[in-house]
From TrEMBL:
Cofactors, names only: [4Fe-4S] cluster
Main function: Member of the two-component regulatory system NreB/NreC involved in the control of dissimilatory nitrate/nitrite reduction in response to oxygen. NreB functions as a direct oxygen sensor histidine kinase which is autophosphorylated, in the absence of oxygen, probably at the conserved histidine residue, and transfers its phosphate group probably to a conserved aspartate residue of NreC. NreB/NreC activates the expression of the nitrate (narGHJI) and nitrite (nir) reductase operons, as well as the putative nitrate transporter gene narT.
Ranges that cross the membrane: 101-121, 133-154
Histidine kinase domain segment(s): 299-382
Entry keyword set: 4Fe-4S, ATP-binding, Cytoplasm, Iron, Iron-sulfur, Kinase, Membrane, Metal-binding, Nucleotide-binding, Phosphoprotein, Transferase, Transmembrane, Transmembrane helix, Two-component regulatory system
Cellular localisation: Cytoplasm
Primary enzyme class: transferase
E.C. numbers: 2.7.13.3
Catalytic reaction equation(s): ATP + protein L-histidine = ADP + protein N-phospho-L-histidine
UniProt protein name: Oxygen sensor histidine kinase NreB
Organism expressing this protein natively: Nocardioides pinisoli
Length: 382
C-alpha cells in the first residue's frame, strides 16, 4: 500500500493557481457593483501576479507589495485584492531563499501598520490612537505571520524530505558498491582456488603421463604405478573441485574441509611421486593456525611446486622450508632454469600467491635466485 502523501502534479498546480487568481478576480470585480471601480482595478492588478508565484515568488511579492502601497495612497478602504498580499508572503516563505522570506515578513509588518492607519482614517476616525490602531495592526500582523509560518514550515519539511531522499540514495549507492566489491573479491578468491587446484592437478597428471609413456616400453610395472598416481591425483583434484563448487551452493555441501598446514606434507609426497626431487624442512606436528592462514600457506606451496614442474625443467631440485613463530613463513627455491624460461604472458600463479599473502596482511617476494634457479618467500602474520 502506498504511504506517500497525496500531492498535486505540475499540471494540477498550474490549474490551482489559475483557479485561485480567477476567484480573487471575480471577488474583486464585485466592487464594480458597488460602484468602486478603483477598488476593482487594484483587486485585479494585485491578483494577476499570483499566476507566477511558484516560479518567481520574490518578484511576485514585490509587485503585490507595490500595488498594495499604491492602493493605500489612492484608496482609503480595504479591498478584496488585498487577500493577495498574505498569499504572496506565503509564496516567498515557501519557495524563495530564507533571507527573502524574512525580508517579506518585515515588510508585511510595516504594511500592517500603514494599512491600519490608512483604513482607520479612511473609515472616518478623527485621530490615530493606540486603542484604535492596535486591533487592526494585531489582526493584519497575525494574518501575515500565519501565512509566513505556513510557508516556512512547508519549505523546511520539503528540505528535510529532500535530505532524507538524498541520504537514502547515497546509502543505496554505497550498498550497491559494497555488494559489487564483495562479489569481485569473491570472484577473485574462487579464481585463485580454481587456478591452484586445476594447475596443480593437471601439471602432476601431465608429468606422470609423459613418464608412463616412456616407461611402458621398458617396464610395464612402472607404467602401472604411474597410472595409479595419475588416477589418485585426478581423484584429489576432483574432490577439490567439488569442494569449490560446493562453496557456490547454499546449504550443506557434504564436501571435505579446506586444506591447511597439515596437508603440506601431502603436497611434498605428491611432488616426489611425480618425479620432482624435493628437500622439505617441515614442522613435525603442524601448528594450530587460523584456517585462512593455513589455506593460504597450503596454496602458496601448491602453486610454487606447480611452477617448478612447469618451468624449472627436468632434474631440478626443490628446497622447501616451512616454519611458524609469530608468522607462517614459506620458502621455496629450485636450481632449475625457471627464471629464464619463456612465458606466454598468461600465467596467474605469482599474482594469485601475492594476493593470498596480502589478504592476510603478509608479503610475498619472488624472483631469480643468486647462482641460478628461482626463489620464493612468503610471510603470513598470525
Amino acid at each position: 500500500m502506498d504511504q506517500h502523501p497525496w500531492r498535486l502534479g505540475p499540471r494540477g498546480r498550474r490549474w490551482f493557481d489559475r483557479l485561485l487568481v480567477a476567484a480573487l478576480v471575480a471577488l474583486g470585480a464585485s466592487h464594480v457593483l458597488a460602484e468602486q471601480r478603483g477598488s476593482a482595478l487594484f483587486s485585479v492588478l494585485e491578483a494577476v501576479p499570483l499566476l507566477w508565484r511558484r516560479r518567481h515568488p520574490w518578484p511576485v511579492f514585490l509587485a503585490v507589495a507595490m500595488l498594495s502601497a499604491g492602493q493605500a495612497v489612492a484608496l482609503g478602504e480595504p479591498t478584496i485584492g488585498q487577500l493577495a498580499f498574505p498569499i504572496a508572503v506565503y509564496s516567498v516563505a515557501r519557495w524563495a531563499p530564507r533571507w527573502q522570506g524574512v525580508v517579506a515578513l518585515l515588510v508585511a509588518y510595516c504594511a500592517a501598520v500603514v494599512a491600519a492607519a490608512r483604513w482607520t482614517l479612511g473609515l472616518g476616525a478623527e485621530e490615530l490612537t493606540a486603542g484604535v490602531l492596535v486591533p487592526y495592526v494585531v489582526t493584519i500582523g497575525a494574518i501575515v505571520t500565519a501565512a509566513w509560518a505556513l510557508g516556512f514550515a512547508a519549505q523546511t519539511r520539503e528540505r528535510y524530505v529532500a535530505s532524507l531522499v538524498a541520504r537514502a540514495e547515497q546509502a543505496e549507492r554505497m550498498a550497491e558498491r559494497e555488494v559489487e566489491l564483495a562479489a569481485r573479491d569473491e570472484r577473485s578468491r574462487i579464481a585463485r582456488e580454481m587456478h591452484d587446484v586445476v594447475a596443480h592437478g593437471l601439471s602432476v597428471i601431465v608429468v606422470q603421463a609423459d613418464g608412463a609413456r616412456y616407461a611402458a616400453a621398458k617396464d610395464p610395472d612402472v607404467a602401472v604405478d604411474t597410472l595409479e598416481t595419475i588416477a589418485s591425483t585426478g581423484r584429489d583434484a576432483l574432490t577439490e573441485m567439488r569442494r569449490l563448487l560446493g562453496l557456490l551452493r547454499e546449504g550443506d555441501t557434504g564436501v571435505a574441509p579446506q586444506p591447511g598446514l597439515a596437508d603440506v606434507r601431502h603436497l611434498v609426497d605428491e611432488a616426489r611421486a611425480a618425479g620432482t626431487r624435493v628437500e622439505a624442512d617441515l614442522p613435525v606436528d603442524a601448528p594450530d593456525v587460523p584456517d585462512g592462514v593455513g589455506l593460504a600457506a597450503y596454496r602458496i606451496v601448491q602453486e610454487a611446486l606447480t611452477n617448478v614442474r612447469k618451468h624449472a625443467g627436468p632434474g631440478a631440485t626443490v628446497t622447501l622450508r616451512l616454519r611458524v613463530d609469530d608468522a607462517v613463513v614459506v620458502e621455496v627455491r629450485d636450481d632449475g632454469h625457471g627464471a629464464s624460461a619463456p612465458s606466454d604472458g598468461r600465467g596467474l600463479g605469482l599474482t594469485g600467491m601475492r594476493e593470498r599473502a596480502e589478504v592476510h596482511g603478509g608479503t610475498l617476494d619472488a624472483g631469480p635466485a643468486p647462482g641460478g634457479g628461482f626463489a620464493l618467500s612468503a610471510r603470513l602474520p598470525l
